[in-house]
Design brief:
The structure is a single chain. The protein has 406 residues and is of the alpha/beta class. The chain has a domain at 81-106 and 209-381: Rossmann fold (3-Layer(aba) Sandwich). It has 14 helices and 13 strands. The protein has helices spanning 37-43, 46-50, 85-91, 110-123, 136-147, 162-170, 182-196, 208-213, 215-223, 240-254, 276-283, 309-319, 331-342, 348-363; strands at 5-10, 16-17, 31-35, 81-83, 96-100, 128-132, 151-157, 174-178, 199-200, 231-235, 265-271, 322-326, 372-376. Helix 10 (240-254) crosses helix 12 and helix 13 packs across helix 14. The longest helix has 16 residues, at 348-363. The termini are far apart. Bound molecules: pyridoxal-5'-phosphate. Residues 108, 110, 136-137, 203, 235-241, 300, 347, 349, 377-378 line the site of pyridoxal-5'-phosphate. Pyridoxal-5'-phosphate binds next to helix 5 and helix 10.
C-alpha cells in the first residue's frame, strides 16, 4: 500500500477533511492526520522497523509521505537518547535522560517538522513557502526549501538570534527582520497568501509538521525498547513537539507495539517571560489568552499565543502531566551547568526544563527515581548571546603562568 493516511480531522470539532488535497486549518484551528491503524498493524510490526535506516523515515507507515513521493531529506532523525547521570545527581534524579535534538540538521528538532511539511508541500506541487519564525523554524524551512528547490520567505522579529538570521540568508531564503513579535510576522505571512501566492508554513497552520515532530515520540518508544518513560519535560512554544509526541504514543499504543500500558506524564515547560500555557493550565482553562510583552532568552519559547493551545492542554491533562514556568533570568546559568555536566550542547529552552525538573523534584511532583526524559530541542551553539563567553587571555610575550591555571 502506498500510504495509510485515511483523512484529516479538525482538532476543534472533529470535521473530516480530505487528505488528498492541500489543507490548512479548519475554523482557524489545526488538523490531525488520521491513519488506518488496523491496516498498519497488519502491514508491519515493530520488529520490521528495527532493520530500517536510522532516520525518522523508518516509521514510514505512520507518516503521510507516500512511497512514490520524493522525501525532502537532510538525514534527519534517530537522535541519541543519552543517560544524564551527572545532571541527574545535581537535580536529585537517578534515572534522567536527554533526547538530544541538537544533532539534527540545522541544529534543532524543527528539521523533523519541516522535512515532513516540505515533502508534503512538494507532493501537492507547491513551491513557494513562507513562515514567521522565532528562529529555528525559519532556519529549517530555509534549508529544506533549498533542498526542494523552492522559493522561501522568512519573517522574524528583529531581535531574533543573529545565527538564525544568517542561516536563513545563507540557505537562500528571502529573509526579513520585523520590528514586532512573531504574531506580527504571522500576520505578514497570512495576509501575503493571496498577493504573494505562497503557502503558509506557520506552526500548526498546515497539518504535517506535527507528523514530523511526532517521530521524536516514536524514536523514544523504540529507543526505550517500547516502554515509555514516566515523565517527559518538553520546552513548549507553539507546542507541536508535545502534541506530536502525545499523538505518537497513542498511535503506537493502538498498534499494540508497547510492552505495557504506561503512558508518560507530559510536562510543558515555559519561561516566566512568556507562559501562556502555564497560566491557562493553572486556571484550569482549555484555551490560553495571549501573553502580553513576551520576552525570554529562550527564543523558541517566545510564542505569546498558540493556535494549538487546547491540543497542548488536552495532552497535558490526558497524560496527568502539568505545565510549569521557570525564571527567565536563571536560564543562562542552568544552560552552562547542564552543558558542563554532560557535554551535551543544551539550549536555553532545554535549560528551562532542567530548572523545571529541579522545582518539580523539590515540590515532590517528580519522584527521584522516576524515569524522566528532558528534550534538548536545539543546539547551544546557536545562542552565543545567552551565555556570553569571557575567557582569560594569555600573552605569549611573557612567560606562561601555569600557576594561575591550577
Ligand atoms: C521551536 C522550539 C521550541 C518550541 O517547540 P514547540 O514544539 O513549537 O513548542 C523549543 N526549543 C527550541 C530550540 C525550538 O526551536
Amino acid at each position: 500500500m502506498d500510504r495509510f493516511v485515511t483523512h484529516l480531522e479538525s482538532a476543534i470539532d472533529g470535521t473530516t477533511l480530505s487528505a488528498e488535497q492541500v489543507q490548512t486549518v479548519h475554523e482557524a484551528r489545526p488538523l490531525w492526520v488520521r491513519y488506518d491503524l488496523p491496516a498498519i498493524a497488519q502491514a508491519c510490526d515493530r520488529n520490521d522497523i528495527a532493520s530500517r535506516a536510522p532516520d525518522m523515515w523508518r516509521y514510514r507507515e505512520l507518516l503521510p509521505v507516500g512511497e512514490q513521493d520524493e522525501r525532502i531529506s537532510l538525514g534527519e532523525g534517530m537522535t541519541p537518547l543519552l543517560p544524564a547521570p551527572a545532571l541527574g545527581d545535581q537535580i536529585g534524579m537517578s534515572d534522567l535522560w536527554i533526547k538530544d535534538e541538537s544533532q539534527m540538521p540545522t541544529g534543532s528538532f524543527k528539521a523533523r517538522g519541516m522535512a515532513m511539511a516540505v515533502s508534503m508541500a512538494r507532493r501537492f506541487g507547491l513551491d513557494r513557502f513562507a513562515a514567521p519564525t522565532a528562529g529555528n523554524a525559519g532556519g529549517a524551512l530555509a534549508a529544506y526549501g533549498a533542498r526542494a528547490a523552492a522559493e522561501v520567505f522568512v519573517f522574524m522579529p528583529d531581535d531574533t538570534p543573529v545565527i538564525n538570521q544568517i542561516e536563513c540568508q545563507l540557505a537562500g531564503a528571502n529573509t526579513y527582520l520585523v520590528n514586532g513579535l512573531i504574531t506580527d510576522c504571522g500576520r505578514i505571512v497570512r495576509e501575503g497568501v493571496e498577493p504573494m501566492g505562497w503557502f503558509d508554513f506557520s506552526t500548526l497552520k498546515e497539518p504535517y509538521r506535527i507528523e514530523g515532530k511526532k517521530t521524536m515520540g516514536l524514536e523514544l518508544a523504540e529507543q526505550f525498547d517500547w516502554e515509555l518513560p514516566d515523565t517527559i519535560l518538553y520546552p513548549t512554544g507553539g507546542g507541536t513537539g508535545l502534541i506530536g509526541m502525545w499523538k505518537a504514543f497513542n498511535e503506537v499504543r493502538s498498534l499494540a507495539w508497547l510492552n505495557n500500558d504506561n503512558m508518560p506524564r507530559m510536562v510543558a515547560v515555559q519561561s516566566d517571560g512568556c507562559a501562556p500555557i502555564v497560566r491557562a493550565f493553572d486556571k484550569g482553562e482549555r484555551f490560553a489568552d495571549p501573553w502580553a510583552d513576551a520576552a525570554t532568552c529562550a527564543s523558541g519559547l517566545r510564542v505569546p499565543s498558540a493556535i494549538g493551545d487546547f491540543m497542548i492542554l488536552d495532552a497535558i491533562s490526558d497524560s496527568g502531566g502539568c505545565a510549569i514556568s521557570v525564571p527567565d533570568g536563571d536560564i543562562p546559568t542552568a544552560m552552562a551547568r547542564a552543558c558542563a555536566a554532560e557535554g551535551i550542547a543544551v539550549c536555553p529552552e532545554a535549560a528551562a526544563c532542567v530548572l523545571a525538573a529541579e522545582r518539580l523534584v523539590e515540590s515532590g511532583w517528580l519522584k527521584p527515581d522516576e524515569r524522566t526524559v528532558l528534550f534538548n530541542t536545539g543546539a547551544a551553539q546557536k545562542y552565543p548571546d545567552v551565555s556570553p563567553c569571557a575567557l582569560p587571555r594569555i600573552d605569549i610575550r611573557s612567560p606562561i603562568d601555569y600557576g594561575a591555571m591550577r
